[in-house]
Design goal:
Helix content: over 70%
Largest sheet: none
Structural class: mainly alpha
Number of strands: 0
Oligomer: single chain
Shape: globular
Strand content: under 5%
Radius of gyration: 13 Å
Number of helices: 4
Number of domains: 1
């Protein structure tokens, strides 16, 4: 539960940074948006559906997302 809250909080933070980065020349807006959306896709269905569409539309991005999702922070569920 706490891991989910942290993941969503970081996701929102990175999406906000990404939006700011789109207008500010110092920040890498697209990178921060991608990180934020990747974090949010674990817990929010709308973002998950967008990720699936993006993966189908751009297979190279889909493979990169799949590699990142192997990290334990992006896994959804409980440890036993």
């Amino acid at each position: 539960m706490i891991k989910r809250i942290i993941r969503i909080s970081f996701g929102i933070f990175f999406v906000g940074l990404g939006i700011a980065g789109l207008v500010l020349p110092i920040l890498q807006g697209v990178l921060f948006l991608a990180i934020g959306l990747l974090l949010l896709s674990v817990d929010i269905k709308l973002v998950k559906d967008f990720e699936k569409w993006l993966s189908r539309r751009f297979p190279r991005i889909g493979r990169a997302i799949a590699r990142l999702k192997k990290h334990r922070f992006f896994r959804h569920g409980h440890r036993h």
